[in-house]
Amino acid sequence: MKQLLRQLTQIPGPSGYEHQIREAIRDLVADFADEITTDALGNLIVRKGKAGQGKRIMLAAHMDEIGVMVSHTDENGFARFAPIGGVRPFYCLGGRVRFLNGRVGIINREKTPDPAKVPTLDQMFIDLGSARHGIGVGDVAAFDRTFEDLGERVVSKALDDRAGVAVLISALRQLESTPHEVYFVFSVQEEVGVRGATTAAFHIAPDIGIAVDVTGWGDTPKVPPMVDVALGKGPAIKIRDSGMLAAPQVVRWMISTAEKAGIPYQREVLLSGSTDARAIQLSRAGVPAGTISIPCRYVHSPSEMIDIRDAENAAALLAAMLSKEVPF
DSSP letters of 116-171? Predict the structure, then answer.
């Protein structure tokens, strides 16, 4: 799992520009799939199981990451930028971004009357180091930060949601057979409005939907006890977030499977944010949907942290669920 995460997180894939990460995932799943397709929006859709058998189940993990897009450049090698997804200003200062052509830039700020105040994004710029930088309006970049192995914990940019991508790949590899028609969807443009999952769910028309994504944390100093989720205590089974109330029958299915298999789990009520499950749930006439979450510290920063055991247990839980009949 660590080596898989190392590989996945270091491939750039800002929303709308997921072609490099999509091709890498395709190579990783090719030997385990019954069918692989890419739809018009760029979702990678991997089918496991015979068409028409059992339940049609859609799993989704988004392969895009937050990033920036150049909106203006000047003759001195400085670029203004717009966010792609939920870029948080206080994580940006001094950070590096890498453009899809390999060029690196450094984010810094204008001089302001109050240097102690966190600037807004429109008060920041990317220093490209030279007037001959080859970067123009519309070019996109992802945050540039290495993968670090801390033992049971790993740190990297883009663990949101390459952790979920790794879980889906691992579950697919573990799933020798399934009585269902399962679609592993590596979705695009989640960070800008769950767009890929929206179109994929309409196309697949699943009976059940499950997203795998990261979630917030409540186990660092002086964090208000509003998210009762901690790293290392198992994947979190979502009950509610700001965009979705998980289907109770899906929640029960996840919990009963985890308990029978001896897989540790947590119960999650997230006060803000949502996942691809929201798009699946609202597709067509409605779909019972839920989410398996990977607890993640410092979400939407260039240095996100997860516990590798949570990801491994999430993959084991999915594989256990998909290998048996659905109890509803």
Answer: TSPPPGGGEEEE-SSS-----TT-EEEE----EE-SSEEEETTHHHHHHHHHHHHH
How do the residues of the chain divide into helix, strand and coil, expressed in percent and rounded to 5?
25, 30, 45
Mean pLDDT score, 52-70: 97
Residues 296 and 160 sit within 8 Å (Cβ to Cβ): yes
Q: What is the pLDDT of residues 249-270, one digit of tens each?
A: 999 999 999 999 999 999 999 9
Mean pLDDT of 90-96: 93
Could you say which DSSP state residue 88 is in?
-
Which amino acid does the sequence have at 16? G
Q: In CATH terms, is domain 67-143 a member of 2.30.33.40?
A: no
Whether 190 is catalytic: yes
| Tokens (6 digits) for 289 | 């949907």
Q: Which helix (H) or strand (E) holds 27?
A: helix 19-29
Residue of 18, 65, 181, 190 with catalytic role: 190
Residue whose C-alpha is closest to residue 130's, from 73, 81, 67, 70: 73
Q: Kindly report, as residue ranges, where domains of CATH 3.40.630.10 are found in the chain.
A: 2-65+157-322
Bridge partners of 90, per DSSP, are none
State pLDDT tens for residues 109-140: 998 778 788 899 999 999 999 888 899 999 99
**Backbone Cα Rg of the chain:** 20
Q: How many CB atoms lie within 10 A of CB 205?
A: 12
pTM for the model = 0.96
Q: Which amino acid is at 304?
A: E
Closest CA to 206 of 305, 60, 97: 60
- Regarding the domain delimited by 2-65+157-322, which CATH topology (the fold level of the hierarchy) does it fall under? Aminopeptidase (3.40.630)
